[in-house]
């Protein structure tokens, strides 16, 4: 009986495939970031593709090298073709499952055809994580990846951590590959965080406005904050305003907004924003008692006035200068007024600049801190 069992086990091993295609971790180059710039050359190689990948030998307690990462670039026709080009002069193949950040150079994203080709290539490939975070470089993407991060960190790791943590909605709005494609398909417009160099250091602030897969302009931090408030994407934010010749700091702990569209002679979009938070800072003065209800009400009104002003200025910029429905008025129409939307969607670019906006902001100061 035992001999039969042993013989059966030996026979079964013939049909076991095992890990025949296993690749050791130190025999792969894990690409963490990619930058794509325009390469001024006639022919197929229109792109300059930059890969960033960590040096495995510099990781861990028993690291044998000091260099933390490698940055390599090559002219090529596409991102994956660039990876094939490097297969002739790097030791191991590139592995894209851990790709986290894609930076598109300013000149590339100004070309609608090139942008569509890049996004389509990434979206079709099964190896690419569709939660890949996208940015637009003010200048060249390669320079951003080569910039020096603070405190000696690795640049591409710093970019990913800043985007992932999303500590400040006023600075930027993180955008994934899937979300960008969805917004462009639904609204024709999306925004991507702007990356730029300040001296030798990296800065991520503001946004690039992308319309029909093409860069049409930039917005700053205040405009980005206003858009985030309208789209209900602010979780926590600090707002400073000038109040009675002093700085009033207000921390938002909860934000809620909604859009309602009225249709008569004009399309009117009513935007209501309600904020809750606490007094972060204000100059102590014997003449100002912040524990008086009247004083707090005046502060709330001052904050409401400033936020309404910034929001209306942002809406005017989107309508008159860029004609970009970033806040999703068209999407709102398609959901709640589908019959009307069918008559407008084909000429929305002519209609959107004429949309009327009413903005109502309600600010509540719930706490004033410990100082009396």
Spatial arrangement of strands, main beta sheet = 4-3-2-6-7-8-9-10
How many domains in all? 2
The largest sheet, given as strand count, sense and whether it forms a barrel, is: 8 strands, mixed
Which secondary-structure class do the elements indicate?
alpha/beta
Approximate shape: globular
Quantity of strands, as a count: 14
User: What do the pLDDT scores average to?
Assistant: 85
Count of DSSP H/I helices: 12
Structural notes for this entry:
- With 372 residues, the protein is of the alpha/beta class.
- It has two domains: 27-219, no CATH class; 233-372, Nutrient germinant receptor protein C, domain 3 (GMP Synthetase, Chain A, domain 3).
- Helices cover 33% and strands 30% of the residues.
- The chain has an eight-stranded mixed β-sheet. Strands 11-12-13-14 form a four-stranded mixed β-sheet, with helices on both faces.
- Strand 11 (237-243) and strand 12 (246-263) form a beta hairpin.
- The termini are far apart.
């Amino acid at each position: 009986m035992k001999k039969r069992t042993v013989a059966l086990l030996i026979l079964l091993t013939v049909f076991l495939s095992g890990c025949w295609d296993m690749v050791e971790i130190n025999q792969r180059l894990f690409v963490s970031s990619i930058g794509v710039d325009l390469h001024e050359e006639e022919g197929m190689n229109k792109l300059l593709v930059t890969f960033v990948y960590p040096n495995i030998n510099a990781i861990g307690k028993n690291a044998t090298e000091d260099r933390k990462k490698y940055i390599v670039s090559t002219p090529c026709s596409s991102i994956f073709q660039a990876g094939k080009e490097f297969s002739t002069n790097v030791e191991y193949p590139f592995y894209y499952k851990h790709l986290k950040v894609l930076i598109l150079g300013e000149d590339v994203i100004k070309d609608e055809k090139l942008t569509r080709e890049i996004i389509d290539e990434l979206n079709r490939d099964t190896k690419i994580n569709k939660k890949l975070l996208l940015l637009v470089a003010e200048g060249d993407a390669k320079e951003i990846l080569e910039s020096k991060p603070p405190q000696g960190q690795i640049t591409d790791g710093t970019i990913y951590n800043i985007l992932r943590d999303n500590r400040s909605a006023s600075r930027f709005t993180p955008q994934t590959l899937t979300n960008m494609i969805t917004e462009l398909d639904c609204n024709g417009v999306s925004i991507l965080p702007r990356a730029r160099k300040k001296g030798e250091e990296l800065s991520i602030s503001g946004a690039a406005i992308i319309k029909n897969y093409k860069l049409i302009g930039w917005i700053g931090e205040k405009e980005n904050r206003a858009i985030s408030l309208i789209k209900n994407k602010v979780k926590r934010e600090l707002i400073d305003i000038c109040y009675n010749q002093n700085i009033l700091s207000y921390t938002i702990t909860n934000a809620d907004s909604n859009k309602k569209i009225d249709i008569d002679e004009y399309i009117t979009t009513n935007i209501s924003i309600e904020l809750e938070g606490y007094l972060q800072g204000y100059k102590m003065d014997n003449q100002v008692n912040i524990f008086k209800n009247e004083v707090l009400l005046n502060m709330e009104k001052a904050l409401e006035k400033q936020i309404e002003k910034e929001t209306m200025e942002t809406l005017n910029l989107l309508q008159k200068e860029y004609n970009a429905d970033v806040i999703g008025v068209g999407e709102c129409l398609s959901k709640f007024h589908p019959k009307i939307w069918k008559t407008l969607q084909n000429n929305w670019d002519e209609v959107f600049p004429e949309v009327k906006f009413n903005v109502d902001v309600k600010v509540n100061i719930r706490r004033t801190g410990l100082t009396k």
